[in-house]
Amino acid sequence: MTEQIYTYGIVRTGHRLPSEATGVGNPPERLRALSEGPLTIIVSRAPGGLLARRRDLLAHQETLLALASEGPVIPMRFGSVAPDEDTLRRRLTESPEEKHDALKRLDGRVEMNLKALVVEDSLPTLVREDARIRRLHQESRSRPGYESSLRLGQAVAEGLARRATQAAARTVEQVRALAEAMSPGPEVEGCVLNMSFLLPREREGAFRTAVDRFVAEYRGQAELRLSGPLPCFSFTDPPPRARHRPRASRPSAAAVASERRS
Amino acid sequence: MSTTTTTYRDNITPVPRTGTLYDVIDIILDRGMVIDVFLRVSLVGIEILKIDIRIVIASVDTYLRFAEACNRLDLEADTRSRTVPELFGGAGGGGVVRKAGEQGVKKAVESGEKKTKKAASGTKKAVGGARDKVKSALPGTD
Lengths: 262, 142
Fold this sequence. Notes:
The structure holds 2 protein chains of 2 kinds. Chain A is of the alpha+beta class.
């Protein structure tokens, strides 16, 4: 009988399995290592009825973090289940150079994620400085009503998002030098920036300090939220250059953010 | 009489070092290596997890709340007070604005949740719908 296998991450063969790490499921599944030559994948039995529960999301993340303390790990996306062991072994041995490159790239690295959210504190400044909002405000006062309120409110919401986007872009420009790579995260409602940074583990403190300075500086413009260290989820693919796909330049944070808002 | 000191701290589920799950759920769900023949666990429930207060940023209720806050700004200016806490619900009747705002947000979230329960994939539609409504309510603002 074949049994589905839940996958956590790919490591080098010989990677020590941390004793405290456990898998997804309730009770947590036992972790084991499947090796094919120099590559090993950390797996467990796939528990029946697995969903994206808080407990399981955390188990996936914590297992990968524990593994990363022993050496480089290529994190699998949450919820990846191999249909059987043979398929898993076959896939593990496919394009080995790519996997070795990734392990090398991620060795000793962590992912930090920076999100910027819109804040409302700058409303008085915005109304004072933005001519269009002032005009809509006047209109709303002279002809009060649902439609004029909506018009004004929408202009304000856009203005606040613009201010947050600017603060986020400036922050990214100032801290990106500390990172080796950046990768925009998925779109998140309410966020004008969602950016992941890859950096050497020992630089985490410096990065945090650098971001903290902007958290304070831009308090009235954006709420900057830094998370990490995370498993290097956002950096499993080779960087664009290595794929020989010519690209003029990495899009700036502002461009990414504005793309996102449109 | 027992003199044993019990520390409950150890029994509390440890807070992950990495900050709240809330802040990184998008990364855990949408990033990481994908191998095409692998299945993905059913993600029923994901949409509900993703629902959060941030969704109302795009909602009509928020627009109306901002408009109200702008009007409140005039009153505050009249009394020569412009501090933000007052603007959003401190002294001088600002509390009414805040209360109204919060109720609006709550309502929007509640209705958002209901919609999600009806259709798990409805999140983006709901936001898109709200945007469309705003657009159609505002001809000529594009």
